[in-house]
Amino acid sequence: MATILAYTSPAMGHLYPISALLVELRNRGHVIALRTLAAGVETGHELGFATEAIDPRIEATVHDDWTAPNPRAALKLAMDVFARRAVHEVGDLRAAIADQRPDALVIDAMCWGAASVADAGDVPWLLFCPFTPFLRSRGVPPFGPGLRPWPGVWGRIRDDALRPLITGTLDRLIRPPLNRVRADAGAPPITTFDEFLRRAPLMLVAGGEPFEYPHPDWGDSVQMIGACAFDPAPVAAPDWLEAIKEPIVLVTTSSERQGDADLATTTMLALADEPVHVVATFPAGLPEHVSVPTNATAREFVPHSQVLRRAVCAVTHGGMGATQKALASAVPVCVVPYGRDQFEVARRVEVSGCGTSLPAKKLNTKRLRVKIREAMAKTERAHLIADGFAATGGVGRGADLVEQQLLSQPNLAR
User: Fold this and answer.
1) Tens digit of each residue's pLDDT (9 = 90 or more) over 44-76
2) How far lies 85's CA from each of 12, 178, 205, 322, 352, in Å?
3) CB neighbourhood size of 77 (10 A)
4) What predicted TM-score, i.e. pTM, was given to this entire model?
5) Do 100 and 90 have their domain in common?
6) Rounded alpha-carbon distances, angstroms, from residue 324 to 183, 225, 334
């Protein structure tokens, strides 16, 4: 039996996927200590984890990238948030390590300070990535704008021309603040974000082919372990959900505010006259004034697994967690990306054929209704994606890798 300390970014969309892995490790007899957002502490306790909230200054540093006038400005704002959080993560994780004396560390890939502490220390560690990591990959476009992969020489020419503009911009934004944090943590400097991620001896990624593109050059240190779908402790389905007789369309927005509440409201209006029932969830908070048609229900939170069992389509903002959770249940998706990594998620939905996408700037009831109807017809492809996630071995294989590559190291006996 080992003690495993997990450290997450302050978002439910990061806590839930990592919890799927941690529950598997707990079921194998390992002791799980968790540091996460304050709203997730109760969930951690319910799962039997020794859970405490991260430094409140980290959670107080909130994303405002959705206010930016263009993608470049949005990227700068987002990276600034992660950099400012990282400053506080250094001492926070050090204190947690001193308190728990863990045998292994599981670090959220967007916790730059925590990852730097792990890199500088002597405790075996891994990065957990709840989305496709920003790693360079042969034959795959640079990550960010959601470019469609082009095979052959013309694709390589395009990607090589755009990579300095896309990945190079990311590296220039990240390198100075990240290296200051790494110096404080005692970790060596990095020159690219790719290099930073690859400092981890092992990276576990939520995903799997054929939803994810093939990455033959990622190497054995990067392993995909399925959708990592997770819901909090099982509870009885609410009476209102049991009373719904029509096929369900689930629509959900980001767990971190990004100005996407109009996706849920537009979906309810678009399907107000359709023979379905819309279940809309607002993880970042239910708006004060929201119009709810008679064939719709709006809630801040509902365990998605209860809804997906009867869903014919899921409409998402393109968050990897919500999108992959639907696909793991073989439910086709309609993605409306707003920013962050969501353009990449939307493109993967299109390329893999398991749903449809609509740019947020083109969102209206008519266009969305058409896209949802098209997505509903892609159930067969959604089943293939679900089979692909299962074929990775899922969190069971992830736990095997933790035990084989981290917990077999000499420090376990200390």
Assistant:
1) 999 999 999 999 999 999 888 777 777 778 888
2) 16, 11, 22, 24, 35
3) 16
4) 0.91
5) yes
6) 36, 12, 12
